[in-house]
Amino acid sequence: MNRKTAFEGTLPSxxxxxxxxxxxxxxxxxxLIIPVFIKSTYVIxxxxxxxxxxxxxxxxxxxxxxxxxxxxxxxxFIGGGAYAAGILSFYLHVPIWVTIPTGGLVAALLGYGLGxxxxxxxxxxxxxxxxxxxxxxxxxxxxxxxxxxGEDGLxxxxxxxxxxVVKYYLSVGLMVVVCGFLLLLVxxxxxxxxxxIREDESAAEASGINVxxxxxxxxxxxxxxxxxxxxxxxxxxxxxxxxxxxxxxSIMVVLMSVVGGLGTIIGPIVAxxxxxxxxxxxxxxxxxxxxxxSGSVVLILLFMPKGVVPTVISGIETLIKKIKSPxxx
Length: 329
Description:
Largest sheet: 2 strands, antiparallel
Radius of gyration: 20 Å
């Protein structure tokens, strides 16, 4: 009875959660009608990329934002899933509906294999271990270049669909499934346990929580979802290369997640859309694109240290309270 009460506030029956659920559904509805008004293949392809990054970022946020396990090697899961799907498709002609979940399973195995030794480490040592693992996989693609395509990557992967609108809706559907699952997960008892581990690992362990098991399981879940997104990316672009295993991709995932707001799932997704679209729109002024982009990120981090989404939500809730409260009180 006491256990149920302890977790009661995190369940969907919370009115605030229902309010946010309606907002989420409104955003999904907006995404679904975009192709009706926008016919540009360039814009649609860009939004497909945003949907894929939304899956990358939300999977990393589960790992770092909720358990506090800092990872600089998330490209290991993204690239691992993409290469697994690409090799299966190119050499064995395995159907796409098989290669995408298989990419997720391969990434989950990588997460388990990395998590067992790496979770004994903490702080910067864990971050360095995850980065090293990603670098090792990148090195293996160079060693087995005849299968991976080496620096040029692997071309000729089966196309998800020749119709860009179909590809868009598939990306929206997969993104909604992945992010919806993560939102349900973090708002459950499991999510509350992860938060307790993040806040005070020793206290969580003293209360009877098997910290190692939960952290390892989170590594596996995060890896699986990132691997699925990576495999989807490979079939969308019909190419997979070492850029998916690069440090720059891992840093970009970290940067976007921090800008959006760690430990929110939605925050990194929103930041992914904002920063990817901003980066593309700034191409019209290429000479100062990097300066404006970097300056925008610095300003956001300076004035919104908790992230864009938590700051905006907090501001809206404060405004609503002021409007509802009696004047003068």
